[in-house]
Inverse folding.
């Protein structure tokens, strides 16, 4: 392979990465700023993190967000995996096309439309808005992401393994659990994490479907941000970014290790 | 033998599809029909239930009465006030220009990533995906820190002697474009990178051996080969940018009013649900072509695999 990593390549990648990371790095640095004025550097300090500990409304919003993210990601992982199996294992069943459309459409649908339609639906069926409605909304959106992720893993799957198991008399469910699941497990795990972080991050759909007592972290951050930049928000955002970065890095290391183990055992 | 086994497995298999299928019908399709219905309701009544109501007990006659009462008056309203047309056009303009900018910025980054040594590539891939996992809201907020009047950008430009007076970056078109390009860059780079990586380098060598200049090779050989990735990336950006709410709301001004904001205002501030629904339906109609195109690109890529 005549790959050459030219100066042009190096510069464009370096600039691209710098562009992606500089704003976040600045945000993190300024969260440790001792000065109340956001733009004036007053030395390093943890005072804004200490201030967060006293903010019980913020803690409640964070708890709500985490609970909703966990519940909706769990439901979305189950439903999304089933959808992926249906798409890649059931062949061309009747009603497949609308099914595919319903899985791909939410991925690109503007959030304001999804949010509005779900809210009008909840009003129409007279369901009180709050924790449950946000969870249903997030499940609907994120199950499509899970389905696409798992499906792409299933598409690259050697089906003769399943057939061999079944030819040897292994019942379908057991084949699925002992042959299929271990192979698609990394995709299912990645799907869960993606669903979790999408739910944790969502502002628009949550704003439409929320109700009394179900303020999530993004809704709280958004209402603060509209009033201007505050050092406390920098601190909240830094914690948010740190947690997600840790989870993603851990997940990618685990996947890599799992894949390597699989390669070794396949040899 | 295999056919019989397949038939045995077939019974009960539809159950796999049934659960997600029913879920999507209940929470995706039906809500849309409700939006459609409310957009055709009378605007006069700002509180549910909206007339006409569908009386299922009355059967066929009820359905006919229901259809007879639907009206397009709300859609007429959208034409009367310039603000709706303005924000649709503004959304299209911002989405088109920023998608173009994303292509121009994304191409060299994805190309460079695909040419990096294999070990570096894995790290670069995580590096590009990571911001995508961190909060969208936080990434937009981070720019407020930088772009505000006494923010870092003005400080830096003043230190370099490029400006004397601070520039008002926030609440401008520029800020909205920066915010959008920043937020959507991973969506453009990742599909492009996937295509660049599959690129057969011997084709480029062949072109070079035959005396084709490098810039021409890029346009004649490379670009057509990565076109599926380019199309996927562009659509993956263009479609959601049209309905974008957070970025123009936090970084823009009344001059950058996008349709997502107009819908939001109609719904939350004016409490006019029929108008908000009509805006959503028109927006969806606008998006049908790019969404159908996107599904086409996606399903073709899946077939290939």
């Amino acid at each position: 392979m005549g790959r050459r990593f030219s100066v042009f390549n190096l510069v464009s990648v370096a600039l691209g990465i710098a562009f992606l990371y500089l704003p976040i790095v600045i945000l993190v640095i300024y969260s440790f700023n001792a000065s109340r004025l956001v733009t004036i550097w007053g030395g390093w300090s943890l005072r804004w993190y200490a201030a967060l500990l006293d903010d019980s409304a913020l803690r409640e919003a964070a708890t709500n967000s985490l609970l909703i993210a966990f519940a909706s990601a769990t439901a979305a992982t189950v439903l999304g995996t089933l959808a992926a199996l249906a798409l890649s294992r059931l062949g061309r069943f009747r009603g497949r096309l609308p099914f595919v459309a319903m899985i791909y459409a939410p991925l690109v649908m503007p959030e304001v439309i999804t949010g509005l339609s779900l809210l009008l639906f909840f009003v129409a069926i007279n369901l009180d808005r709050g924790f449950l409605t946000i969870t249903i909304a997030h499940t609907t959106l994120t199950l499509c992401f899970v389905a696409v992720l798992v499906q792409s893993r299933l598409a690259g799957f050697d089906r003769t393994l399943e057939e061999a198991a079944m030819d040897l008399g292994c019942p379908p469910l057991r084949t699925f659990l002992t042959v299929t699941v271990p192979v698609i497990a990394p995709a299912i795990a990645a799907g869960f994490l993606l669903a979790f972080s999408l739910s944790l991050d969502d502002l628009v759909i949550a704003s439409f479907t929320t109700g009394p007592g179900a303020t999530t972290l993004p809704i709280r951050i958004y209402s603060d941000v509209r009033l201007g930049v505050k050092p406390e928000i920098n601190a909240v955002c830094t914690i948010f970014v740190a947690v997600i970065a840790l989870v993603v890095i851990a997940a990618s290391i685990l996947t890599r290790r799992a894949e390597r183990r699989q390669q070794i055992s396949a040899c | 033998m295999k056919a019989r086994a397949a038939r045995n497995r077939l019974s009960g298999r539809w159950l796999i599809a049934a659960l997600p299928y029913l879920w999507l019908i209940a929470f995706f399709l039906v809500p849309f029909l409700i939006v459609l219905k409310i957009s055709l309701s009378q605007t006069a009544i700002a509180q549910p239930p909206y007339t006409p109501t569908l009386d299922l007990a009355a059967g066929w006659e009820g359905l006919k009465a229901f259809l007879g009462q639907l009206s397009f008056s709300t859609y007429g309203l959208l034409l009367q006030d310039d603000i709706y047309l303005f924000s649709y056009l503004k959304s299209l303009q911002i989405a088109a220009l920023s998608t173009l900018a994303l292509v121009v910025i994304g191409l060299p980054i994805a190309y460079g990533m695909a040419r990096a040594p294999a070990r570096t590539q894995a790290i670069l891939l995580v590096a590009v995906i990571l911001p995508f996992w961190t909060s969208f809201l936080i990434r937009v907020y981070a720019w407020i820190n930088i772009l505000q009047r006494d923010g870092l950008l003005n400080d830096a430009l003043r230190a370099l002697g490029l400006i004397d007076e601070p520039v008002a970056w926030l609440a401008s078109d520029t800020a909205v474009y920066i915010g959008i390009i920043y937020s959507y860059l991973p969506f453009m780079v990742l599909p492009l990178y996937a295509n660049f990586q599959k690129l057969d380098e011997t084709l480029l060598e062949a072109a070079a051996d035959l005396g084709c200049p490098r810039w021409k090779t890029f346009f004649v050989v490379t670009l057509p080969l990565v076109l599926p990735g380019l199309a996927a990336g562009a659509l993956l950006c263009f479609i959601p940018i049209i309905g974008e709410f957070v970025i123009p709301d936090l970084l823009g001004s009344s001059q950058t009013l996008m349709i997502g904001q107009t819908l939001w205002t109609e719904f939350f501030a004016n409490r006019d649900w029929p108008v908000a629904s009509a805006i959503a339906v028109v927006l969806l109609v606008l998006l049908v072509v790019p969404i159908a195109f996107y599904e086409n690109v996606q399903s073709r890529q899946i077939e290939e695999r």
Remarks:
- Chain B has one domain: 74-304.
- The mean pLDDT of chain B is 82.
- The radius of gyration of chain B is 25 Å.
